[in-house]
Structures are given as C-alpha cells and as structure tokens.
Design goal:
By secondary structure, the chain is an alpha/beta fold. The longest helix has 21 residues.
C-alpha cells in the first residue's frame, strides 16, 4: 500500500438493527445519564407509522424528560435549526434524538453543535469560518434508507437568506447510536424511496470514481453496496413492505456514507452533490432527484478522463461484458440512467419540472456552485466554473 492509500477510519456510532430497535431509545439515553432530550422529526409519517409514539413511550419508561419538535423540511433550513436551538437551550436539553432521515439528523446535528458552543453562530460552521471541537450527543431513529446520516460526519443546511446550501463535516457530528428498524420505512411513498436509492448510490459512486488504483478491497466493498442497492431497490420501489429489501437498503445507506467505501482515496469527488445542492437551494427540489438529474451529464462529461474506471464500474456493478473500455464505460453510464428511469427518478433538469431554464439561469447556477468562481469542484476530473456550466447545459437537454 503506497502513501496515497493511507487512511484513518472512525465510526463511533453503535448500531441497533432489527424489529423493535426504536424501543431502546430511552434505556440507551438513560445509560448515558442524560436528563433532557429534544426529539426532532419531519412530517407526519413518523406519527402515522407509530414510531414517534414508540420512541416517546421508551423515554417515559426510562423516566427521561423530553420535548418534541416536528416540522423539519426536506431540505433542512437554518432558520428552523436556530429556532429549535433556542427551545433546546430554554429546556436545558443535553441530548438530541432525530426520528426520521437525513434532513432530521442534519438538523439534530446542527442543534447539537449550537448547544455545546453557545458563543458561536452555527452558520459559521457551515461557512467554514469556525471549526467547533465539541458537540452535544445525538441519537438516530432511522425511518428512511437514504442519506446515511445516522453514521456520517456530515450535516447539511440551507440558509434561505441567499438560498445557500452548505455542509459541515466533522467527526463530532457522528451520532452515538442509530436505531434501525426496517419496518419503520413501510409508509414511505414511492418517490421518497426512489430518492433514497439514488442517494445511496451517489454516496458510493462519489467515492468510487477516483483516479487512484490499488484499493481493491475498498473497491469491491463499494461495488457490493451498489449491486445490493440496485437489486433490492428494484424490489422496494414496487413493495415498500418487503422487509428483506428494506433491510438491505437501510444497511447499504449506512455503509455508503460512513467513509467505508472511500478508504484509501486521497480525494473523493462529490461533484454531483455540489451540482445538486445548487438545484436544491434555488428550486427546493428533493436531494435524491437533484442527483439523478445531473448524473448522466456529469458522467458523459468526465468519463474519458479515465474510461477504464467507468469500464470497471460497468463490468463489476452492471455485468457488462464488453472488453473495450470506452464502449463498456458508455454502457455502464446508460445502464445507470435506465435504472434511474425505472425508479421514476429524473435524469435531466427538465424532468425536475423547474420550468424553462435560460442560459442566465445556468450561468447563475454555475457561478453559485463554484462559490462565485472562487473554487473548483470534483476530484475524478477537477471542474472549473466553465466546466460546471457545460454540465448544467447538458443536463438541461432532454
């Protein structure tokens, strides 16, 4: 293993997986001697499927004081996080429990940072102006197999003042535990399941598409996550009550974003995430949909940088038998696009129903994606503002 492939791996989150996992919340928090909990959730699904009630019952049984706050938006807002933070401070909260998916957990992580660092504006962490070193513990009760936030170091918020979507990636953001019961995903609508499948795949491929060689175990782990996600995603999109399929997706989501599938990679790509973040920030589109809408354009723009990498993806993930790397690479891209279509996910910007995007709109997106032309994005192929513009243009074609 050469020096480029050296790595550090830190995954402190304890996983409790299986039926009834959410009922352990109270006892686990009590074991940590926490006294006051804020329970965060999003829309009504956590209420309708009963998981919120079961979590509350576990907290009551453990004798833990708690407050509940719902209404986390699908692209979580800074304003809501600050509102929740003020309530948490008044109630002297010392533990955050997120019941939901990535958006809820992103918000919980933000509130946790604010509680532990009352002297700071939490938005400064997302702008990378300050780097906190402590946070309040967070627990996760997962209801959506998608973002992998239950094991990741990432939190993403949107500041509606300027429509800025930014991330804060710190190991202190990682939840102390994750309670994962696949039955709690049964009420998800088909579109949300599709978005989750895309997010799992993108979290994996953003690490997988690299210029580096020699990370064979890491590569094969990533390929396995992709194959399992694709196979079980096809089942889950048709039957959300299929326990086996939802179990595999839920576990794949955790593995896709805890760092495992990128070990030994000096620089991960995440271009599609950056491209998609601007769409979510400006047009409030679902995160997974923003990723599938730009992936084809990105892949077609960059694959000739190293067609052998895309060819390996095509062969190992999609079973392509073509021996010519360029042809195999193209086949892998097309199979991915066709799979997204089978999930009823958008594969171009017009399918996001944003209305007609003008050249001015695309230029603005490119300007914002590169932080007003002050940075380049990506690692598989480093992209400047003009590259980003060409990708948005290609994505804007049906």
């Amino acid at each position: 293993m050469n020096c480029v492939q050296k790595f550090e791996f830190y995954t402190p989150t304890k996983i409790y997986f299986g039926k009834g996992a959410e009922t352990r919340a109270g006892e686990l928090i009590r074991q940590m001697n926490k006294k006051s909990v804020m329970v965060l959730y999003g829309g009504g699904s956590a209420v309708r499927n009963g998981v919120l009630g079961r979590v509350e019952d576990s907290l009551k049984a453990a004798g833990i004081r708690y407050i509940v706050k719902g209404g986390v938006h699908a692209n979580p807002y800074l304003a809501f996080a600050k509102e929740a933070l003020e309530e948490a401070r008044k109630e002297k909260v010392d533990f955050l429990l997120g019941v939901g998916g990535g958006s809820v957990l992103d918000t919980a992580k933000a509130v946790a940072l604010g509680l532990a660092n009352p002297q700071d504006d939490i938005w400064d962490y997302y702008l990378r102006k300050k780097v906190p070193t402590v946070s309040t513990p967070v627990g996760a009760v997962l209801t959506i197999p998608a973002a992998g936030s239950e094991t990741s170091n990432s939190s993403v918020l949107t500041n509606q003042d300027g429509n800025l979507k930014r991330s804060c990636n710190l190991d202190i953001n990682r939840p102390v535990f994750a309670l994962m019961n696949p039955e709690n995903t049964y009420t998800l609508p088909k579109y949300q399941i599709g978005c989750g499948i895309v997010d799992i795949m993108m979290h994996t491929t953003e690490r997988y598409f690299t210029q580096e060689e020699g990370n064979e175990l890491t590569d094969q782990l990533a390929e396995a996550v992709l194959r399992v996600t694709i196979e079980n995603g096809s089942t889950a999109i048709q039957d959300s009550h299929n326990y086996e399929a939802m179990s595999e997706l839920m576990w794949a989501g955790s593995l896709s974003h805890n760092g495992l599938t990128g070990l030994g990679v000096a620089a991960t790509d995440f271009s599609c995430h950056q491209l998609g973040h601007e769409l979510s920030a400006k047009y409030d589109v679902a995160h997974g949909a923003s990723l599938s809408a730009v992936w084809k354009a990105w892949a077609n723009y960059v694959y000739m940088t190293k067609p052998s990498r895309f060819a390996r993806y095509a062969r190992k993930v999609w079973g392509v038998c073509e021996t010519d790397d360029v042809k195999a690479a193209r086949m892998g891209i097309e199979k991915t696009v066709e799979y997204f279509k089978s999930l009823d996910m958008p594969v171009c910007l017009p399918e996001l129903n944003l209305g007609e995007l003008t050249e001015e709109d695309l230029r603005e997106l490119s300007f914002r994606c590169t932080y007003e032309n002050t940075r380049r994005i990506g690692a598989f192929q480093v992209l400047d503002m003009e590259d980003v513009y060409h990708i948005y243009c290609a994505a804007n074609e049906e």
